[in-house]
Design goal:
Blueprint (H helix, E strand, L loop, with lengths): L21 E13 L4 E12 L3 E7 L5 E7 L2 E2 L1 E5 L2 E10 L2 E11 L12 E6 L5 E6 L21 E9 L3 E3 L3 E10 L2 E10 L11 E3 L1 E10 L2 E10 L3 H7 L3 H12 L9 E5 L4 E2 L5 E3 L19 H8 L7 E3 L6 H19 L1 H12 L17 H17 L2 H14 L3 E3 L1 H11 L36 H9 L5 E9 L2 E9 L8 E11 L7 H17 L9 H17 L7 E10 L6 E4 L22 E4 L2
Parallel strand pairs: 1-11, 17-18, 18-20, 21-22, 23-28
Antiparallel strand pairs: 1-2, 2-8, 3-7, 4-5, 4-8, 6-7, 9-10, 11-14, 12-15, 13-14, 16-17, 19-20, 23-24, 24-27, 25-26
Length: 624
């Protein structure tokens, strides 16, 4: 039974500015770390702008901390600290303008049970017995360790973080190290580190890493000039890290080519070894993959890049430059960063290996909850989101335009908070052409071949209306189902098909239409030059990003393979027959359509869909 649903997300465009009356501009966080007792003490001065008059002010800090006092307008404030919220009582209403408030507090921050998924602090030791401390708080929020306006839609324009630690240790945080110096705290010799982040930043991205780090550095000659690369690793891992992190520069060059300039040139790029797997802390990426290939040593085929380096770095663009304003939009961070892995594989290993990698991702798709969902335990926001983008690329059929659209997202929403509707509307505005099948029920599609040995379907229709596409993939847990059966008219066999999906879903797909028998006539060795030239033209077309590729690259390679076969057998068996493999675009809707099959293979092997699932995230079901 075909499913019908009402489109709801286009009628509700959530604007964070409508609910935001307070806008934080700067945090000045100053903390002393008592590592022996796993506690912290200090203050945070919060600089903020009032956008509309308010008579109450609320900040956030976990309940396990004790708040010593709060200073506002040079006076102590009355407050209540309840349910991880700080309710501050104002003597008078605050009118539009700039203010600052300082919160003094102390306590033992929550210890993470399984960082980074379960948020909090990790207190560990290196192999020499030195303390090794880190924090991850994306899901649980920054108020797990410091007071502030802990909402995703309010990013500070910049942050200064001062931290004192035992004198044998170093502190690594976001941005640039302004200075460090020896100091004395309560009679103990300690060291002060002051870090300054100079770009808008998610609260959960503020990081502290404490260890007896060894530092080395490099410089990337990027699109905006020199980019400082800094690496902080445990001393026992220094030699392996120098070699292992050599993959960073090629990766950054590729990401800049694909997504635009690295977003935080002034603050640089850093990898910091952490006692947990990893996290995309802005300009201070947490790295804990143990210098292994893949994901803790697991990877498909020979695609052996370090997953944490590539995935978490992709978040500098997808998550840190473009940022969600609500947790149920986290797919924007994770789908694009996971898809970035596939694009990286395509660049470094080749297109076919990208398909191998994508199919490796596909095995992890669960289809239990929608991609846009409050059920954050689902990994579909990663892998299904990646496949949604891969599918959309195939539907567009123009890699040059696709690259332009993806890179354009970074320029359109640079340093901005976005939601799902923003991304959908961008794609709808950017997608080129018309997404509408002109055929009527019962019609079948004719083919227009470039020449007698080309099987590229000349598709004139392109997406105009992507509403149903995003409704299906973002807001529904089920995949669209292509239902099909075979019918017979005279000596012809027809493939009948329709979508079982949301209303108006009419995504075109590619099928294998079989092999067509051709007859060689008057073939001579001289013709080899002609077909060599045609093969060369196809190779240039495949490798030219400006060419509108009617089929995915893998199928272009099939064309070229055919040329190899054809050319190598010329003159051997004159007047013999040969076969051309055909791939065809079809345009299913929720109404039955059909297409004649060149070579009907009516069995349960779904031969006509042997490559379809390499390019589209769908289910295929034979119903008769």
């Amino acid at each position: 039974m075909t499913r019908f649903f009402v489109f709801f997300f286009f009628f509700f465009s959530f604007s964070f500015s409508q609910i935001q009356k307070v806008d934080v501009s700067f945090y000045d966080l100053d903390l002393d770390f008592d590592i022996e007792n796993k506690s912290i003490k200090g203050s945070n001065t919060i600089f903020f702008n009032v956008l509309e008059s308010i008579d109450t002010l609320q900040l956030n800090l976990f309940q396990n901390f004790f708040i010593d006092s709060i200073l506002f307008l040079d006076s102590k404030c009355d407050f209540k600290h309840i349910d991880n919220n700080i309710h501050i009582f104002l003597k008078d209403a605050l009118h539009v303008g700039a203010y600052d408030i300082e919160v003094f507090y102390q306590g033992k921050p929550q210890i993470a049970k399984n960082a980074p998924w379960d948020g909090g602090f990790v207190w560990d030791k290196d192999s020499f017995g030195n303390d090794w401390v880190g924090v991850a708080c994306q899901g649980i929020g920054s108020s797990v360790w410091w007071p502030g306006h802990d909402v995703l839609y309010d990013e500070a324009d910049s942050i200064r973080f001062s931290a004192t630690v035992p004198e044998n240790l170093k502190v690594v945080s976001n941005g640039d190290l302004s200075f460090s110096k020896d100091t004395i705290v309560n009679g103990f010799h300690k060291k002060l580190f002051v870090w300054k982040n100079s770009y808008p930043i998610n609260n959960y991205n503020l990081s502290v890493n404490i260890a007896d780090y060894q530092h080395f550095s490099d410089t990337l000659l990027g699109v905006n000039g020199g980019l400082n690369l800094d690496y902080y690793v445990l001393k026992e891992n220094f030699d392996v890290a120098v070699k292992h992190f050599s993959q960073v520069k090629p990766m950054l060059h590729f990401f800049e080519k694909k997504f635009g300039p690295y977003p935080f040139y002034s603050d640089g790029y850093a990898l910091v070894e952490t006692p947990y797997l990893g996290m995309e802390h802005q300009t201070c990426i947490a790295y804990g993959n143990q210098f292994k290939k893949g994901y803790l040593g697991k990877f498909p085929s020979d695609i052996d890049f370090d997953f944490i380096i590539i995935h978490e770095t992709a978040h500098e663009w997808w998550g840190n430059n473009i940022s969600m304003g609500h947790m149920n939009d986290m797919w924007i961070h994770e789908a694009f960063a996971t898809y970035a892995e596939a694009l990286y594989v395509e660049e470094m290993y080749g297109y076919d290996e990208m398909l191998v990698y994508l199919n490796y991702q596909k095995k992890k798709i669960k289809n239990k909850h929608p991609i846009k969902s409050d059920f954050f335990s689902s990994t579909d926001m990663y892998y299904k989101g990646s496949w949604m983008l891969h599918t959309l690329r195939t539907v567009l059929g123009n890699d040059y335009r696709w690259d332009d659209i993806i890179k354009g997202l970074q320029f359109e929403f640079k340093d901005k908070i976005v939601n799902t509707n923003d991304i959908i509307q961008y794609f709808m505005n950017s997608f080129f052409g018309v997404y509408k099948s002109k055929r009527k029920e019962g019609d079948y599609l004719s083919q227009n071949y470039q020449d007698s040995i080309s099987y590229l379907y000349n598709r004139s229709n392109k997406p105009e209306n992507l509403k149903a596409f995003f409704q299906q993939y973002l807001f529904e847990s089920d995949l669209p189902i292509l239902e099909y059966f075979y019918s017979y008219e005279g000596e012809g066999t027809f493939l009948n098909f329709r979508w079982n999906a949301v209303s108006d879903f009419d995504m075109p797909i590619i099928i294998n239409n079989g092999k067509e028998k051709k007859q060689r006539k008057n073939l001579t060795p001289n013709r080899k030059k002609t077909y060599l030239a045609r093969k060369d033209a196809f190779i240039k077309g495949r490798d030219n990003p400006n060419i509108n590729k009617k089929l995915p690259l893998a199928l272009w390679d099939d064309v070229i393979s055919f040329f190899d076969f054809y050319i190598n057998t010329i003159g051997e068996v004159p007047d013999s027959s040969f076969y051309i493999q055909h791939y065809t675009w079809i345009y299913p809707t929720n109404v039955w359509g059909k297409i004649p099959l060149i070579e009907p293979i009516v069995d349960d092997n779904q031969h006509h869909f042997d490559r379809t699932e390499d390019f589209f995230l769908i289910d295929i079901k034979k119903i008769k």
